[in-house]
Amino acid sequence: MSQHPLNPEETDALYEAVRTQITGKTFSTDDPTNLQKMIESLGDTRGITRLHFAEAIGAIGTPATPFLIEAVTHHPNAVVRRAAAKTLTLIADPTAVPTLVHSLLTDPDTVVRSSVIGALAKTGEASVPALLEILASSEYPEDSKGLATWALAFIGQDAQSHIMAAIDSPSSDVRTAVIGTLGTIVQETHDETAIALLMLALDDSDSSARSEATTALSNIQHKPALPKLIALLQTHIDPETRKAAALALMKIGDKNAIAHLEVALENESEQSIIPVIRLAIGQLHKKSNDPTEDW
Asked: 69, 246, 265, 275: which is deepest, by most CB within 10 A?
């Protein structure tokens, strides 16, 4: 699709012409020439010009999607691929999801990949099955999985049913990402079903998933989790789980946890966990001695 690039004067003239047409609702998508020129102008050396064309193409909407898909997939100029992906963020067309996923997994340019994940996140629920598939696969790199996890958290409540359905995935990466997303959801909604799933996740077989659940519950200061967190702190074989439980107890802020933390401190054999438990005890003592906490 790559054409001969326009010079700055031609680019500026093109923008003024299409802007006038879009404003006057006379822009025609029947002739692809202008759209192709606009895509090429996404590679302009001037950032403000790229932004103007992205906004103009975004205003055109889904008729521009095939041109942007072609650019994201095949354009030799990484700047155009980046800007095309960012423009798809403005349109949020579900038909672009397969192309965006392909670019996330294969494009050599890191900025293209980060732009692509933004478009997937803004597309919302339609992106979730593909994001979960990336997380479940052992074939994809960790950076792609990290971006997919971020996108799921961004989509959050808009894809709650998909996310809840994946809580029993055999993939620990999927479960960890889902638990983290549920944590985002409950901070916004305090959804009881999501909270119940987080409570169940405290018994997950994977350390990272358990830690995500403890963090999520502590972020909403969910006091019904205290007995389970205390049990994890005092008896769990995994040091990271004990550490996460101590931090969660500190964040929930119930002074009744102090005695249990002190018992755990006496029994803790992992040197890296001892300072964390001491910190939790100190912070809870400080909070219990603060008279403003009663107001």
From this structure: 246
Q: Is 178 helix (H, G, I), strand (E, B) or coil?
A: helix
pLDDT digits (tens, 9 = 90+) for 71-101: 999 999 999 999 999 999 999 999 999 999 9
Tokens of 84: 């095309």
Residue 8 host element (H or E)? helix 8-23
Burial 261-272 (b: 16+ CB within 10 A, else e): beebbeebeeee
Measured in Å, how far apart are the chain's first and last C-alpha atoms? Answer: 66
* Residue 85 and residue 112 in contact, taking contact as beta carbons nearer than 8 Å: yes
The three-point CA angle 218-223-227 to 5° equals 100
The pTM of this model reads 0.83
134, 185, 204, 227 from 213: Cα distances, Å: 21, 12, 9, 14
Compute and round to an integer the Cα radius of gyration of the chain: 25
Confidence of residue 291 (pLDDT cuts 50, 70, 90): low
3-state class of 254 per DSSP? coil
